[in-house]
Please model this.
Amino acid sequence: MSFLFNEWIMIPLFGICVFLIVILWAEKALAWLHKRSLGQREEVVKIMRLMGMDVEEKKITVLILLMSFGIGALVFLVFWPNILIGTFFGASITIAGWQLPLLLVRMMYEKRCSQFVDQMVDGVTIMANGIKAGSNPQESMKRVVEIMGNPISQEFSQVLYQMQVGDSFESALNDLGNRIPRPDVQMFVTSINILKETGGNLAETFQTIVVVIRERQKVEKKIQALTAQGLMQGIIVTLVPFFLMAVFFVVDPTFIKPMFTTTLGLVLLFAMLALQIIGGVVIKKVVTIKV
Model:
């Protein structure tokens, strides 16, 4: 078995293994890299268009590249000439930069959807009062646009605009439900479409929708209050290792230096970051309760 430890045998075997791995997995690896980087551009563009924003794909591409490879290259240069540490942190920042634009856009989109649902209480009440006064749903919706602000004003304006260019009221409402995929909005859209065909007291239905939305908001706020402590504890626990690392850098740099200059230290550092990410995701899943 000693021939297995001969460097003249092990080095060619290692090279052959690397060559085979590259041949077998190169296409999948490149496809994965594209999906996790520029492949997210389509999702970013789609969400921005759902929010009614003018989007240029070229600018989105440049932004993603700057936030990933651009910042990653700067981090690599900061740690130069330590190539190993620079590569580790540069690659980490690059991977994080791939996710950041989509994460920020999704946060903006979720916030917009939540604001729309919050405004529905007043908006649907105005529509119910308008219908009681003899107006039709379109006229009542126009009244909401005149009184209230964005995002409900912008979304209802889009519905009215689609009708002006020849689209049906039902189709325009369905598009509204696609842009704001929340249960309360789906309930609002479905109720109008059904009652428009079958008849019924639309004003009373709107009042029922308002009551449902208010009760749902009460439950959501109660859950947020109950889970706020767990969420804050998760944030604190996640930040403590980085805070201690910064303290050691200031107080005694030689004590923490082996973490970045030795193989064992880098392995432990990578394991720590991986466990921090896994722990943060698990805590977020636990404290996120959907109503």
Q: What stands out?
A: Confidence is low (pLDDT under 50) at residues 1-5.
